[in-house]
# Entry
Amino acid sequence: MSAGQVHATALVHPGAQFAQGVSIGAYSIIGEHVVLGEGTWVGPHVVIEGHTRLGRNNRVYQFASIGAPPQDKKYAGEPTVVEIGDGNTMREGVTINRGTAEDTGVTRIGDDNWLMGYVHVAHDCEIGNKTIMANYTGLAGHVRVGDWAILGGATVVHQFVNIGAHSFTSMGTYLAQDLPPYVMAAGNMAKPFGINSEGLRRRGFSADAIAHIKQAYRTLYRSGLGLEEARRQLAAVAASCAEVGALLEFLERSKRGVIR
# Structure
């Protein structure tokens, strides 16, 4: 344990490691195998345990729990991991469980993500960069979330579901199948409702790229084609449009099927 600003009531294991500029709030508990990067702020009443590593400039608010054992009956105490990158915000009551030996053994979160109050990230999830998860969003085990995805409040995601980059869900959405990149979804069960065109414009996508994505959406969801025939038509466009290529690659990787 290196120098840092630790409240007198915090319980920090001597084996924990943290860099300069780390702050630990009142009554927080930091376990033996925890590593905290430079500038990370941990508020009061936070528990960080297990083999858990946070990078630089993260903010963890009160009553969050990071690195607890997975909620999986098969878990037998293996030394699995949570890895969190830089610049993430985890608001009140966020829970992030470590991985399981049934998968890679790692629950991984990238950089610059915003997890609002009471978000749950279960074992073996992988979250990219610059995502937003609104209050009460819940990810079951083994879920993958692509960069820039936005999940509305109380979105619930079934285990093993993949969520594509730049996608968007409305509040109260239940995803039992994969959500392709760029697509907006709502409802229980989730249904597609166009593409996230406003988000794409804000992120600098060209008008031409957005037009190609819109046409790809029509091919996938409005043409009446079966999934395989839609994929063949998208393949003809993918060679000249990287964005459609990314959509096609996602469809080809899907194991649970995509929302339709």
User: Anything to note?
Assistant: The domain at 5-142 is CATH 2.160.10.10 (UDP N-Acetylglucosamine Acyltransferase; domain 1).
